[in-house]
Structures are given as structure tokens and as C-alpha cells.
Amino acid sequence: MGFRLTIIGVGLLGGSLGLAVRERIKGCEIIGCAHREKSLVQAQALGAIDRWTLDPAEAVSEAELVVVCTPVGLIETWLDAISAHLQPGAIVTDVGSTKASIVSAGERLIRSPASFVGSHPMAGGSQKGVAVARADLFEDATCIVTATDRTVPAVAEQVAQFWQTLGMRVVRHDPAEHDRLAALVSHLPHAVAAALVACQSPASIDLRGRGFTDTTRVAAGDAELWRDIFLDNAGNVVASIDLMIERLQSVRHIIADRDAASLEAWLKKQAGIRETL
Amino acid sequence: MGFRLTIIGVGLLGGSLGLAVRERIKGCEIIGCAHREKSLVQAQALGAIDRWTLDPAEAVSEAELVVVCTPVGLIETWLDAISAHLQPGAIVTDVGSTKASIVSAGERLIRSPASFVGSHPMAGGSQKGVAVARADLFEDATCIVTATDRTVPAVAEQVAQFWQTLGMRVVRHDPAEHDRLAALVSHLPHAVAAALVACQSPASIDLRGRGFTDTTRVAAGDAELWRDIFLDNAGNVVASIDLMIERLQSVRHIIADRDAASLEAWLKKQAGIRETL
Questions:
Q1: Residue to substitute from B173, B207, B233, interface A, most A β-carbons within 10 A
Q2: pLDDT in tens, B28-65
């Protein structure tokens, strides 16, 4: 059941992946690779990887599965660095929050007899680094696997099964549809949370309750990571923000008109949707 | 140390208040009053009140402190119902999320030798009813006490001390300033969370992760309660939504322009504020 796995980037995601694989799949050898030796040493000490190297070629040359767990902005560079060193039949995937540009780069750079399929495990946290990695990060969360018409079906199936083995629910979408949906349900909440913080003054923040704390939690996330996600998925993120502005304008007018019945109906509808989650 | 306390409205807030007072202040007699006998019977069974009556006059005639814990839209009606039956020196406060109109009604209806001071304990939850009441609801949360130039300072001080005894941090603002700040930090997050739900499709919600769940948690709140809060504080809520739209438009343009430096700076700024909370 075990195989040779290479994890590129050993932060929260990569470190948790190593811990989860160790717990769920017997007999894997897990090799870590990253830019910074310090993270790799720490990941090894925490048991997330068996051994490590700073050399991309050495890291992937015997791997059956490679998972690129770096921030979105670095994934293409790493795909480029490993592409010439993969063994035949090797499968490469990633954990990036955007998919269209990454999958396009992956399919261009990773060629048969190796394969690339994009993944987006919807798991993470506002803290970063391998120190906050945990074996259960992926459990009961959703993972989107983004096969295209260039993907060999058996390869997509193997990647899907890998995430399922880690306790994830797998959903499939093509990369463009993934990016449209992720903009709405993941990237927009981040922009909204940050904009909500940007509305406050020290006096208003001083009065915060649990509602504000919950609603803005994601805004504490890593700025560089989110900059790259927003820019890589700019078209969909802009469209999502425009939709959000429309929705806010609509409720704003209902309130300004003191239209109690429409306001209650609107609030009831959203509460009903939210309660079912 | 004990005194006679009347709690009007025994839902999550009123029930939790009874449980908290029982735990923190020895020798109080706690009388419950509400429209519905069922809630009162349940509150008594849970130990939140010692005895109850459906009659407002009987409920308050011997009370030293009366706390109105009904939804915002019903507070004025209850103040009117009890005003003629208070004993000299009785202090009346409330827990409403808006203050200007409630304090205005309170000062008009509750006359010397009884007194009214508004309170807003920033505590609650998306579930309602005395069944979810808990003695620690108020602990470590903030309570705004809204004295005016018509308030006897010693009376405001007694109300502030009451909330402090329950473990709350007390902040003072006049009612208008409270409503402006509460619109930003409490009412706006609710409107934003509901609007964020309103942007989704079944396909996008299917992909939700913890970010969406956290950011929209408050949207599951009681629609009638929030309808009344939004309408009672309509001017400030509309101004807050307008500010939010401005902030969203600003980040939308930064993303549309692919302005990486401005985007990172803006995200860093909001993350920095959020992290300190």
C-alpha cells in the first residue's frame, strides 16, 4: 500500500499532508523539498517527512506521487524545476487555491509518461508554518480535483483516491468552474472579511463581540498568499466582489425604505440557507 | 448583597442573566416575566428564575432592578407596561442591541423616583430560547452602558457595577455614539454575512471550507430580531453598508488593475489589525 511521496513546500499544508499520510497510509516514504532548510529540518523533527533535500531533481527522481504544497505564486516555478526529473508514471498534483493557470502550467510542463492533475483541498488556517501542522487537517473537508479533457481518467482517479484516503470528500470540477466557484465561496469571504476590518475604527473595534470576531477571522490570513490568489483569479474575484456589492446595495435600499416585510423575508432566506450547513 | 431582580423576557439573554446572577450574586430573588408561560416554566425548571408571573405590574412592584431582555422591537412596549408599577428608587435597564430610540423611550416612560439607563451586553448566539442559556454567556464580553445628561451618575454606576459583577468589561458611550459604533462592529457584520450567503449557489456552497462557515456564522441569527435591529438603527446601518461598499470597490479596483503592491499592503494592514484582536 505504501509508495514514495514527495512533498514540495512543508508549511501548514505540506506538513499536515506528511502527518496525515504517515497516519493513514502504511509504508510510505515521504521526502520533503523546499527553499528553506529550516522548515525541512523542523518538518522532519515533527515526523512530517522521513528525509529531505533542497534539490528538486533529487527530491522527485524516485517519487510515485509529488504534491506541490507551496503558496500559489510559487507553484509554476516548482513544476518547472521538477518536470525534467520525474520518473515515468509519476503523478504530480498541487494544493493551490486557484486552478486554471496552475493546471495550464502543469499540463504544459509535466508531460507523458508523467502526469499532472490539479487538486484543491479546502483546508488551512490563518496561522502558517509546519509548527501548526496537524494530521487531521484534511479530515471531513472537501477536496476539488480538477481533471481536464487532457487528463487520463485513471490518473485523476488515483489522485481522488489519495485525498479520500486522507478522509476528504472529493468533488470534481474543471479548472475554470473551480475558479469561478472558489472565488464565490472562498476568495470573496476573504476580501469581505478584510473590507469589514477596513470599515472599523479603534472605538468600534473596542466594542466587538463574537459576531465580528467570527466574521473577520479569515482576514488574519497571510497577505502574500492571498495577494497571489486574488491576482491569479482576478477576473472571477472581481465578478464576485461586484455581485457582493449588488447584494449589499439591495439590502441597503430595503433598510433605507424601512421595508420591514422584504427585510425579514431576505434575512429569513439567508438564515435558512446558513442554518442547513 | 442580594436584591430583588426582575427579568423581563427569558430567552437566551434573559435566561443566561438569571443563571449568571444566581452564580455570582448571593441572596438575590429573581422574578421572571414574559408573554409566554411556556418559556417561564422552562426558565424556572432550569434555575434561571425563582418564580414568575405573566403580569407586568406584579413582576416589578417589589423589584430593585428590572432588566428588559426581550427582542429590540418589544422593549418599548414592556417599558410602557411596567412604568406605572415601579417602586421608588427602582432601576430599569435593558439589553437591546440598539440604544438611541430605546433610551429615549426609557427616559420618557420611566420617571423619577425610578430610573432608566440603557445597556448593551455584547453577548448572544445564533440559537435562541432559554434552553441554550448559560451562566457564562456574559463573562469576558463587553457591555456598553449608555448614560445621558439626564442620567443620575450614581444610577449609571450601579448598572455598570451590576454587569461587572457578571464578569463583563463595561464601556460607556452616549446612545447615539453607541448606535453608530454598534452599526459598524455588530450590525454591519450581520448584513455582510447574510449578503455573502446571498451571493452563493448550491454548487459554490458545496465547496465551502471553514472560511465560509466562520464568515457567515452570524447570518443564521433570528430574522425578526435582526429586522428590528436594522430598522431601529436604519440610518447608521445604511451608512455602514455604504462604507463597506466603498471599501469593496476600492479593493475591487486594486485587483482589477493587478496592482500587486497596493493589494499586499491593503491585505497586510487588515491582517495586522485582525491579528491583534
A1: B207
A2: 999 999 999 999 999 999 999 999 999 999 999 999 99
A258 by Cβ neighbours in 10 Å (0-12 / 13-18 / 19+) ranks as: exposed
Both B188 and B87 in one domain: the answer is no
What residues of B are in contact with residue A124 (Cβ under 8 Å)?
Answer: 209-211
pLDDT digits (tens, 9 = 90+) for A154-198: 999 999 999 999 999 999 999 999 999 999 999 999 999 999 999
Beta strand spans in chain B (E): 4-8, 29-33, 51-53, 65-68, 91-94, 115-116, 118-121, 142-146, 169-172
* Grid cell for residue A94: 498541487
What CATH number has the domain bearing residue B212?
Answer: 1.10.3660.10
Model's pTM, two decimal places? 0.92
CB-closest option in A222, A237, A277 to B208: A277
Q: Which of residues 120-149 of A touch B (CB under 8 A)?
A: 122-125, 141-142, 144
How many distinct helices (H) and strands (E) make up chain B? 13, 9
Range of the domain at A17: 4-173
Say what the ipTM of the complex is. Answer: 0.92
The set of cell numbers assigned to B49 is 428564575
Q: Which CATH number covers residue B28? A: 3.40.50.720
